Amino acid sequence: MSLIRHLLVIAILFGASVASAQGSSLARSDRTSTVSSVPAEVLVILAKEEAGTIDPQLAKMTALRRPPFNSFRSMKILSRPKLTLKPGKDALVSLPNGRRMKLTLLRVMPDGRYKVKAAINRPDKSDYLPLLQVVASAGDPFFVAGQTYQGGTLVVGVIVDPKKTAR
Amino acid sequence: MESAKTEDEKLQMFFDGELAPEEEAAVRRSLEGSPEGAAQLREWEQLRLAMKRVATNWAGEVDSDALFARIEDEIGDEIVPVEQPKSEPPALRVVPGGRERRVWGGVATGFAAAAAILLAVIAWPERQLDPAPVTRGSEVLEADFGSNTGTIFEVEGGAGESLAVVWIDDEEVGLP
Are residues B27 and B69 in the same domain? Predict the structure, then answer.
């Protein structure tokens, strides 16, 4: 191989390396700093120990049939609000017991999971759940349960980026 | 100058026996007229006799006819192709600048290999840092229950992922 060909190969590989490095760093920076918004969904469920029905929409959520939820024999979806989480911006969801759930997207982790801050309180109060920080992968919920309501218990499930559940 | 040359030429031709008889006789007389010339003439005569003797002996030893016949025979022989020596591989040929070129080629190949490795190293961690299928589920990083008590559970999801459950007592809250 001639010297010119060697130099050409070097130039191509070096260019590819630089491009790949820039692409990698851009991909990381995209995740960590340039995410403009991400959709989210909140499931507000009233669960009771009394015999009843399980909402068919919850049939696929097998986690709700395992402890600590397995003592509930009926589950009903009270609301299913969809919202958009933006970094640093609070998103509010009204709960049936008068409290409000505040969700804030903090960042997207290097592994692609979302770091979310949550709080549940009455307006202008901070007496229930002042702070909760969770990391969740797209489509996988986290639950906040325990609030009493109408003889049952509220189970609030939060799903960030619900459309990516098929990964 | 020209007359000296002419004299030298005449002496040379006299020595070689190429002068006409009249000229040869005149040169001989001129030389015999002085002691130096007479001595030179005798020296030349001796040298000429010695050369003739040697030429006669050499001509007698060499069979010129046989030598000529041998040359003719060899010219008429069939031409036998001469086997050419195997050429050296190009890499071993001594070519000015070739060594330097090979060195440059090695350096270039080394750089190319290094660049390829760098490319693989840079590209590989990106795939490794994005183990999306592995990091499924959710987990609690921090929880502040305030004045309440709570429990953090992990419950298995449908795909075996671990899902976070925060359970908070609601006894101390006076609902509106």
Answer: yes
